[in-house]
Design a protein that fits this description.
heterodimer, A: mainly beta, seven-stranded mixed beta sheet, B: mainly beta, six-stranded mixed beta sheet, four-stranded antiparallel beta sheet
């Protein structure tokens, strides 16, 4: 597709359940990023992939959060045993990876609500 | 540590009014500065950027000047339109991790006809 896509667009789950969020980056983009946007807050960096490896996982809030990327393309963010404080919009972005800053292109996000 | 502070919203203006959305930052070294915009129902998109002091970024009639002396990157537009209604985010990236953006909380802009 022309842009970054994410699915589902909305997810409502019960506390304690596991959820998987999917991101399809722009074709050819080697870098992929996950962010979390809580109500009234700026974006919080979660994790970054270069190809299939994640050099920086420093933003993951706890060990309940994990992410993987396969084939240098699709990425899945998994949240285990969800808690109410996990409710947020989860944004994915992708970019080329060259020296210096590379513009990040964002998907529309997945709105997660944990009841 | 690195941080970005931008004015709280919502900011409500009439069409053709002058717009300023303030953004100040704290950073080590020499960051690059960005404004992103999120239109209703759409993903974030880069509006403009400046990579060194005194640079002016501009796009779609919006401008922002990188002011190192005041650590600011205020967004301005001379005459806003209803279609400019959106949430605007100021962000920075530092030389030690160019990929990681540090974000302000966002400012919602509402333009009334």
């Amino acid at each position: 597709g022309a842009g970054v896509s994410q699915s589902p667009s909305n997810k409502v789950t019960e506390k304690g359940k596991d959820v998987e969020l999917r991101c399809d980056p722009i074709s050819g983009h080697t870098a992929l990023y996950w962010y979390r946007q809580s109500l009234g807050q700026g974006l919080e960096f979660l994790i970054y992939f270069q190809g299939n490896s994640a050099p920086d996982k420093s933003g993951l809030p706890s060990d309940r959060f994990s992410a993987e990327r396969t084939g240098g393309s699709v990425s899945t963010l998994t949240i285990q045993r969800t808690q109410q404080e996990d409710s947020a919009v989860y944004l994915c972005a992708s970019s080329f990876m060259t020296s210096g800053y590379n513009e990040q292109f964002f998907g529309p996000g997945t709105r997660l609500t944990v009841l | 540590g690195n941080s970005v502070t931008q004015m709280e919203g919502p900011v409500t203006l009439s069409e053709e009014a002058f717009l300023t959305i303030n953004c100040t930052y704290t950073a080590t070294g020499y960051p690059s500065l960005f404004w992103y915009v999120q239109y209703p129902g759409e993903g974030l998109q880069l509006l403009l950027k400046a990579t060194k002091a005194d640079d002016k970024g501009s796009n779609k009639g919006f401008e922002a000047t990188y002011r190192k002396e005041t650590t600011s990157f205020h967004l301005e537009k001379g005459s806003v339109q209803v279609s400019d209604s959106a949430v605007y985010f100021c962000a920075l990236s530092t030389g030690d991790s160019n990929y990681q953006l540090i974000w302000g909380a966002g400012t919602k802009l509402i333009i009334k006809p």
